[in-house]
Write a structure and sequence with these properties.
Blueprint lengths: L4 H13 L8 H25 L3 H27 L8 H18 L3 H30 L3 H27 L2
Helix pairs in contact: 1-4, 1-5, 2-3, 2-4, 2-5, 3-6, 5-6
Length: 171
């Protein structure tokens, strides 16, 4: 459980940090969403390097593939719109706890790693999906960005359910 707290904390900062009155701007939203994707891709790569469990590896492969695809679409969209993603306190606050979680997970092996990774993925997707629903999508002004975030939410909600199933199977 301790291992999951770093990314959970980062995701909580995502939700709390974006919940200010006016909401984040589109360039900030793009940076927050991209950063969250990069964090999950790194976690998936770590799982692929450490886990020998076929279910965990399949899930991690799916996370790396899907989050990379969404991030590629986001980069293409900001390029098309001539928008530069804007670093902000929320996106910056995500990396430090994620790094700490990666370090803690690196010390785990076998079933302990698999369970901690799966639990973290459940919590991370739950929190990021909540931030997408409550803050990022409602704050997006550009229709194409909003649509991409909504598509991401649909996909990431499926990820959350898959992560929940995986975590339950590893108990």
């Amino acid at each position: 459980m301790k291992a999951a707290l770093g990314l959970i904390g980062g995701a909580a900062l995502l939700a709390a940090g974006t919940a200010h009155a006016a909401g984040p701007s589109d360039p900030q939203i793009a940076h927050i969403a991209y950063t969250a994707g990069v964090i999950d891709i790194a976690a998936a790569k770590q799982a692929l390097a450490k886990s020998h469990n076929k279910q965990v590896r399949a899930f991690a492969h799916e996370m790396a593939r899907d989050h990379a695809a969404v991030n590629d679409k986001a980069l293409a969209l900001v390029k098309q719109l001539h928008v530069t993603p804007e670093a902000n306190p929320t996106s910056a606050s995500l990396s430090k706890p994620a790094d700490a979680t990666m370090k803690r997970l690196a010390k785990l092996h076998g079933r302990s790693f698999d369970r901690a990774y799966a639990a973290n993925e459940v919590a991370y997707h739950r929190t990021v999906n909540g931030a997408l629903k409550s803050t990022l999508i409602p704050s997006a002004n550009n229709g194409q960005l909003k649509s991409l975030l909504e598509t991401g939410l649909t996909l990431f909600s499926e990820h959350q359910m898959h992560a929940e199933h995986l975590a339950a199977s590893l108990k």
